[in-house]
Amino acid sequence: GYTDDPVIGPNYYETEQIINAFNALLRRMKVLDDSRQEFVSNVSHELKTPITSIKVLADSLLSQQDVPNEVYREFMQDIGAEIDREDKIINDLLALVKMDKKASGLNITSVDVVLLTEVVLKRMKPIAQRRNIDLTLESKRTITAEIDEVKISLVIMNLVENAIKYNRDNGWVKVELDADHQYFTVKVMDSGIGIPGDSLDHIYERFYRVDKSRSREIGGTGLGLAIARNAVLMHRGTIDVTSTVDEGTTFTVKIPLISNGSKVL
Ligand code: ADP
Questions:
Q1: Which residues form a coiled coil (predicted)?
Q2: Contact between residue 179 and residue 257 where contact means Cβ atoms under 8 Å apart
Q3: How many Cβ atoms from other residues are within 10 Å of residue 38's Cβ?
Q4: What is the 162 CA–ligand 1 centroid distance (Å)?
Q5: CA proximity to 150, closest of 107, 188, 113, 179
Q6: Does the N-terminal or the C-terminal CB of the chain have fewer CB atoms within 10 Å?
Q7: Nearest 5 degrees, angle CA 119-CA 121-CA 123?
Q8: C-alpha to C-alpha distance for 37 and 43, rounded to whole angstroms
Q9: Where does ligand 1 bind, in terms of residues with CB under 6 Å?
């Protein structure tokens, strides 16, 4: 007997369901829009920081007369470092945006994972040596996997780079590779500063850093782990972390040996 209701009209229950679904959709859209706005505002802030520094450095050089050669060089070096920072942020952002386009997907080939890891570690060695950090690789077997070589390289590179950056002088970084019949695992362990418990849930967020000033100083963009996590999820893998402050951190990445990719991020 509801069908004649002059206010709510026919099929009352169905109408209510549609309205509920529509409201749920609106709420979901609002959440998406808020996080998009936050991302854009973060990006703008991050991109502006080096530009502001460059402007200040250039202005103060120009305002001085007869600047001694060493001072001039020092300012120019600082300007160069800020430009490098800007370049790094832009490259990281491009890598993220590229992975966000779900259609871009994975470029799967058959990859020797031990060799790939060796290549990454060779590139990281000079950075580790600068602070006398011992960087070692232990692989328990040969591992061949159907993966996107570039993206998995990026994952290992970001984790090892962090393990070096957030370490102490004379510390160590150990990378361990292993596999069973379904997955291979990459463990990156360090003797570094560790991550406080309340930060662990946030480290994969874009631009999140435990210590902003420290991360900036050592050239962090706050995007490395967001990129790593995206790449892992695209392979239908998992990434986990355990950490003790002042003792060290362990990241464990688990990737299927045969990855047909994932469009659900
Ligand atoms: P960043 O460019 O700042 O290194 P990431 O996304 O790679 O950004 O990491 C986010 C934050 O997580 C870092 O700023 C740092 O505070 C923390 N972090 C990441 N890896 C480690 C680690 N191995 N040891 C201690 N802290 C870490």
A1: none
A2: yes
A3: 13
A4: 6
A5: 107
A6: N
A7: 75
A8: 10
A9: 158, 162-163, 166, 190, 192-195, 203, 208-211, 215, 220-226, 249
